[in-house]
Amino acid sequence: MLPSAIENLIHEYVDAMSEGCDLPPIEHVIELRRHSDIFVMNNLGFVMGLPTDGLNSIRCRIVLNNDFMFYFRLTISQKVRFIRALKRGIVTDRSTACMSWLMLQKGLINYPDYKQVFVDSLLMKFLIFFSARDSILDQIS
To answer: CA-to-CA distance for 68 and 62, rounded, in angstroms?
Structure first.
């Protein structure tokens, strides 16, 4: 029989190892992010009134070239519509909802590789970009 302190330490290590084994493959989370990014781009295109052909070429350039920069302007009403669509997408779009749930509810954001996948998503980039303390955008439900 081992002392209780050593047994507790062994149980903590086993729990920590189990936790690492239960993580989903990062490739699957990256695939969720890719689908979520498409949802975000579709909403941006809708808000900006872009034709579908233009939106598809922009999406391809963003996916194929990480250095591509996309400059645009949105009016206040477009920003509000866009942020509302993104916030609604966290609940209604399957990929966006799954990615958000895995990161925030299941705690994958506590693991650096998974956190980077989440932070690099277009959803987070736009929400962080448009977020300002006490702004009207943060009060949208």
So the answer is: 6
The per-residue pLDDT for range 26-44, each reduced to its tens digit, is: 899 999 998 998 888 888 8
Instruction: For residues 114 and 102, give the distance between their C-alpha atoms in angstroms, rounded to a whole number.
Output: 10
Residues with Cβ < 8 Å from 109, sequence gap 6 or more?
Answer: 103, 115, 118
Report the predicted TM-score, pTM, of the whole model to 2 decimal places.
Answer: 0.69
**Full residue range of the structural domain in which residue 117 is found:** 25-139
pLDDT at 5: 77
8 belongs to a structural domain: no
132 with 140: CB under 8 angstroms?
A: no
**Total domain count, the chain:** 1
Asked if 33 and 117 count as a contact pair (C-beta separation under 8 A), the reply is yes
Closest Cα to residue 36, out of 137, 113, 117, 128?
117
In 3D space, the residue among 131, 105, 100 whose CA is nearest the CA of residue 33 turns out to be 100
The pair of three-digit structure tokens given for residue 136, joined into one six-digit string: 């009207």
Domain assignment of residue 19, yes or no: no
H helix runs in the chain, sequence order = 4-21, 26-48, 52-64, 76-92, 94-100, 112-119, 122-130
